Amino acid sequence: MTEDATDEGGNWNCSLFVATKSWNKDEVTWNDAQAGVAWADTYAVKGAYSVPVLGGGDHNSTPVYLGPLPADSSWITVDVTSAVEYFVQNPDVNFGMIIKDALTQKGYFYASSKYADSTKRPKLTLSYESTGIIPVAKSGMTGVSIESLPGMFRMSFPHVGKYIAELHDAKGRMIATTSGIGGSAELSGFGKANGVAFLTLQFEGRSATRSVMMVH
What we know:
Blueprint: E1 2-7, E2 13-18, E3 32-34, E4 37-38, E5 41-46, E6 49-54, E7 65-68, E8 74-77, H1 81-89, E9 97-101, E10 108-110, E11 133-134, E12 145-149, E13 152-168, E14 174-187, E15 195-203, E16 206-214
Antiparallel strand pairs: 1-8, 1-10, 2-7, 2-9, 3-4, 5-6, 11-12, 12-13, 13-14, 13-15, 15-16
C-alpha cells in the first residue's frame, strides 16, 4: 500500500492497524465510526508498551506496520500482505486499515481517495501468481478440476452429472452463475472484473468453495 503524507512538523513514527469495527466513510470521525456509533478505547503503540488512547478507531493491538514517517510531502510504502491475506480468508470482517501516529500527539496529513490531486491518492498494489488449476479434491469431489483462464473458469467432471457454479465477490454479492447437466462447464460473465472472488461448485450432491483470482 502506498500513501502520500505531509508532516505538520517534527519526526514521528506511525502505526498501521487492521480495523476491527465497521465504519461509514462519509460519517467517520476521530470519535465516531459512524453517526451515533462511537469508537471504543483503542491503543497506540509506544515502544514495547501499549498506551491507552480514547478514540481514533478500533483495531488489532499488533500493528501491521510501525515505523518512521517519510520526509515532508512524500510517499510511504508499506507491505500489507498479511492484512490482505487475512481479509481474503475472513471477508465478513474486512473493515480496512487505520493509520495512526504512534504517540497520537502529533498531526500528519494523508491524501485520501477523494484528494483533489489524483496522482497523490493512495493505492494498493497486488502481486500474485496463478497456477491455473484450483484444487478441489480435499472436499471429496474426486475427479473434479477447475481451471482459471482470462475472463472465465473451466470446470471438468469425472462423468456427466448435475452441477451448479456460483461466483461471489468478497462482500458476498453474486457476480456470475451457471448450472446444467454435463461432463464439463464454463463460468464467465464477470466482464472486466479483477481481484479475489469465491467460487462455489456443487456437483452430484457435493459442494466446495475456493478463493479464486479473476483476470481478464
